[in-house]
């Protein structure tokens, strides 16, 4: 899904740098004009806004906390689109704030097709003013809804998944 999201930003005229743990996943984006970074730290050191879409919360913790955050420039923003734990979102938010940076958690719903077509539902948590500032970027990806303080975007996504499962079992 992250590749489709990055592709939409490139198509909209944004300069995009990418890092993928599997370099073959970034080849198509490079062919569209993306700059390939050698590591998450390199990407963070040269970027003002960083989007992450990582497979598992434990990977988010290690990549974001151990590699991206230590390399961020002051006032940089990290947006994590991974569906994760609200407590982890709050921890990342607090660590970013200590570095004079910003963290927005913005899990998405809509799958690969929604990402490709720019029709994702984005549940943003964190600083509302920062979410508003990022709105032009989010609108390239879908519809953003500000859910509240750090952790609220993740809580909304988790709640939505639970409701979906309840519906399946009761139908």
Please give a handful of descriptors for the protein shown.
8 strands; 3-stranded mixed sheet; 171 residues; alpha/beta; 3-stranded parallel sheet; single chain
Q: How many strands?
A: 8
User: What is the arithmetic mean of pLDDT?
Assistant: 92
Strand line-up of the largest beta sheet: 3-4-5
Low-confidence stretches: 162-166
Structural class: alpha/beta
Number of helices: 8
Shape assignment = globular
Note down, in words, how this protein is organized.
By secondary structure, the protein is α/β, with parallel strands linked by helices. Helices cover 50% and strands 18% of the residues. The chain has helices at 2-11, 27-31, 40-45, 57-68, 86-98, 111-117, 128-141, 152-170; strands at 17-18, 35-36, 49-52, 77-80, 102-105, 108-109, 120-125, 142-148. Strands 3-4-5 form a three-stranded parallel sheet. Helix 4 links the parallel strand 3 (49-52) and strand 4. The longest helix has 19 residues, at 152-170. The two termini are 29 Å apart.
Q: How would you sum up this structure in a few lines?
A:
With 171 residues, the chain is α/β, with parallel strands linked by helices. Helices cover 50% and strands 18% of the residues.
Describe how the helices and strands are arranged.
Blueprint: H1 2-11, E1 17-18, H2 27-31, E2 35-36, H3 40-45, E3 49-52, H4 57-68, E4 77-80, H5 86-98, E5 102-105, E6 108-109, H6 111-117, E7 120-125, H7 128-141, E8 142-148, H8 152-170
Helix pairs in contact: 1-6
């Amino acid at each position: 899904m992250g590749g489709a999201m990055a592709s939409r930003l490139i198509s909209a005229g944004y300069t995009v740098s990418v890092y993928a743990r599997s370099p073959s996943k970034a080849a198509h984006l490079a062919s569209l004009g993306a700059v390939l970074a050698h590591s998450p730290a390199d990407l963070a050191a040269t970027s003002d806004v960083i989007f992450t879409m990582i497979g598992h919360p434990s990977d988010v913790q290690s990549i974001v906390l151990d590699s991206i955050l230590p390399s961020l420039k002051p006032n940089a923003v990290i947006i994590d689109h991974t569906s994760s734990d609200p407590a982890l979102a709050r921890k990342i938010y607090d660590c970013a704030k200590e570095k004079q940076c910003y963290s927005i958690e913005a899990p998405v719903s809509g799958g690969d097709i929604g990402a490709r077509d720019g029709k994702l539902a984005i549940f943003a948590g964190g600083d509302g003013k920062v979410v508003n500032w990022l709105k032009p970027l989010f609108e390239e990806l879908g519809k953003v809804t500000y859910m509240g303080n750090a952790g609220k975007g993740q809580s909304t996504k988790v709640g939505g998944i639970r409701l979906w499962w309840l519906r399946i079992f009761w139908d």
